[in-house]
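quick one: pyridoxal-5'-phosphate bound model?
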Amino acid sequence: MNPEKDTKAASPFRSLPKVDELLQAAERSEWAIRVPRNVLRAAARNVIDSIRESIRLGKLQNGGIAKDAWGTMLQKSAEALREHSLERVINATGVVLHTGLGRAPLAARAVDAIVEASQSCALEIERDSGERGHRDQAVRRLLIELLGVEDGTVVNNNAAATLLAVNTFALGKEVIVSRGELVEIGGSYRMPAVIERGGAKLIEVGTTNRTRIGDYKSAITARTGLLMKVHTSNYRIGGFTEEAELGELTALGKEANIPVVHDLGSGLLTKSLVPALAGEPTVEESVHCNPDVTLFSGDKLLGGPQAGFVVGRAKAVEAIRKNPMFRAMRLDKLILAAAEQTLKLHLEGEANTTIPVIERLNLQSGVLAERARSLAEKLQKRFAAKNETVNIKLEAECFESVSEAGSGSAPTVGLATHCVAVSVENLSAADLARRLRLSKPAVFSRIYEGRVVFDPRTLAPGDDDAIVASIASALVNN
Ligand SMILES: *Cc1c(COP(=O)(O)O)cnc(C)c1O
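yep, here:
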């Protein structure tokens, strides 16, 4: 910083270009002819905003941006505007269900089903009679077969399912929940707020670490509409703890004639599906305890699209289906197609080879060690000490680490893995990670002890080569 120079200079904001000036700079360029005028104007405004921000942060030392750079800046900005914001990225974080990266990557057959359903499809029509049908019929049959429940349906996500369940069973009444289960799942999704917005009154029972069945029993009054058990997916209380079992709660519900809802969230169907997540409660166990309904997500451990499944007793599921809010939370046909295919793969016993989430969670440390070694080798080869194409010095090394299930599933379980740690001479890990996020294809990694880390557990076939290419482009183009 040179304060003297600062005070002498005219206000740097005066050097900000105007929209029309920027457009003029691009007027005769080949690329600009193909870009719609309104996109160009929006791009110009973004360029001006970013220059203004740079000035404000004191990043522009020499009196602004030279005029001959305007055209290139505008072109870059226009390209960014025309990019597809949900382009594919590479998840090298080792977090299998990364909420920021779209949670579950879908099975190939689920993707095919989406493409198929994108045209006209028999969404709500009985083929035999030609009469209007129900969109959840196929999923309903699959849920019944897969889980042995009386009935099942699906809505937008587990959050919607919870809201619907509260509203269906306890509108204007009370919902009893353990103090240890009043969780925040993420964002503003907090159980007490959901119950209130569902039109019910929350009655907290027990304490943060201990709640017994007697606590529920003594809280039951004529106003009680629902007993609810919530899986505290994303956190664990250790030490001196006690909670009422779901079985005890359903017995109490039956005795008092009050519906019981289990908000399970994570949606692991059975223990054997992912042996490493032995502590995670399963849909099978929940259903076995016979609550009125069990709720679980589609895009967590089930490995499907965003959805909220509602399964259980026929009368309860039908009541939810009849709630006028159900229509506002119903699934789009594309998601429904993917949900149906995902359930089919589970039913066919193919999950472990076809559903990426299940495959990845089950990858063994030995396989991952081999994949990490292969990636490290590719990197070393490509960036062999200051070669001619890329003038950088990069080091890649394998090490033992842990991956996570993610999205609040099994938060305390670490899955043994082997990663590749990369460092580049004269470039910080944060800088390299940022460049990789902005490269094409974008790569999301994690940083550990000053190095950028790639976990092969969450990589798809072919991602290795893409990582090598992205590193090369990230280092050359910056
Ligand atoms: C994740 C979770 C939710 C929210 O599920 P979405 O499908 O993301 O809406 C609700 N309840 C529990 C217990 C969860 O784990």
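Residues 1-8 have pLDDT under 50 and may be disordered.
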